[in-house]
Amino acid sequence: MTTETSKRALIDAAKHGDQDAFAAIATDAADRLYAVAFRILRDPELARDAVQQALMHAWRDLRGLRDPERLDPWLYRLVVRACYAEVRHRRRTIGVTTLAVIRSVREQPLAQVDDHDQLDRGFRRLSPEQRTVVVLHYYLDLPLTEVAGIMGIPDGTVRSRLHYAMAGLRAALEADGRSARGETHSA
């Protein structure tokens, strides 16, 4: 979408049942939503399903969107909920893509990790809620208050999940490092 005015016009038209206007909104948002869903679910099929579910809910509930400027956070909230539904539906733990693509993580030892497989294993150990906080905060660069709004949870819960996610990643990386050193010494 080119301008805020045209974006508002599309949202207003879609609210009144214009399917072409909604298709333009969905097309504009689909790649961003897929990127978030994939990073949470780590499975392209599940991510596509989550985006499709989120967009179906958006079409159904668009009339309830009061502030058109809040469209993107609202869509992110819908895709996060759809990701959680996919995880519950599949009844398996799914990892997130590596932290290497998350440019703002600067904490040690994560910034020094070269082994992407090791990092991916650490992400697989996180709960979907912890992965979501990491993706929304570090990948999308959203402030924690906005992450809380998208997830529909208190700010303190977001901070706690982020803290435990980062501690879990560090512990997993340290454990992997210890087992790798142990394997080296025993060989």
| Distance linking N and C termini | 59 Å
In N-to-C order, the SSE pattern is HHHHHHHH
SS elements, strand count: 0
- Low confidence ranges: 92-113
> Strand count, sense and closure of the main sheet?
none
Helix percentage: over 70%
The CATH topology label of the largest domain is: Arc Repressor Mutant, subunit A
How many structural domains does the protein architecture include?
A: 2
CATH class group of the largest domain: Mainly Alpha
Oligomer: single chain
Radius of gyration: 19 Å
Query: What integer is the average pLDDT?
Result: 82
Overall SS class: mainly alpha
The count of helical stretches stands at 8
Q: What is the strand content?
A: under 5%
Shape call:
elongated
Known CATH architecture of the largest domain: Orthogonal Bundle
Give a short overview.
The chain is mainly alpha-helical.
Detail the topology: elements first, then pairings.
Blueprint (H helix, E strand, L loop, with lengths): L3 H12 L3 H23 L2 H18 L9 H20 L25 H9 L3 H12 L4 H8 L3 H32 L1
Helix pairs in contact: 1-2, 2-3, 2-4, 2-6, 3-4, 4-7, 5-8, 6-8, 7-8
Describe it for me?
With 187 residues, the chain is mainly alpha-helical. The protein folds into 2 domains: 4-90, Rna Polymerase Sigma Factor, Chain: A; 99-186, Winged helix-like DNA-binding domain superfamily/Winged helix DNA-binding domain (Arc Repressor Mutant, subunit A), CATH 1.10.10.10. The protein is built from 8 helices and no strands. It has helices at residues 4-15, 19-41, 44-61, 71-90, 116-124, 128-139, 144-151, 155-186. The longest helix is centred in the C-terminal third of the chain and has 32 residues, at 155-186. It starts with a helix and ends with a helix. Residues 92-113 have low confidence and may be disordered.
